Amino acid sequence: MSMDASINFCLGSHLPIEIFKLLLRNDWGFSSKYHSKIVYTLEDESEDIKFGNMDFDKLNQLISIFEGQVGKEKWFSILLMWKESYIGGNFRFNPVDAKYNTFDLSIDLTASELTKTILGDSRISDFSWYLEKIVPIFKERDIQILDINCANSFW
Questions:
Q1: Residue 17 host element (H or E)
Q2: End-to-end CA, the chain
Q3: For 109-120, what is the mean pLDDT?
């Protein structure tokens, strides 16, 4: 049996890159578990999907890429973990919806070796653990959370 899990936030009036930097300043980051690399995916100018990885010391270069057209009109995703816990997910920062001045942040928890699960059933994601780590960061900075949706599917 396979599982698919995600948390989706709809956030108001902030650019995705601002939220990404905020998460980095608040204990979300990268892990040496992945060969000391930052693992990312982005949609480039030709709407192709680009996969990549960079050394930790190239983070500023990656932020510059995200601050360009990517993050305003294109999406990017990056593998983030809580401190050095090896627990996290693939954070996808979708482009800003200009009409409503909002954007969606999706956290894919399908990579089971990174996902925090409830005690007793490794198929069920512990959504409260993630929300306890993320929501206070947004609330402390008055970032408007318009919607939160947590989903766990099995097939």
A1: helix 16-25
A2: 6
A3: 81
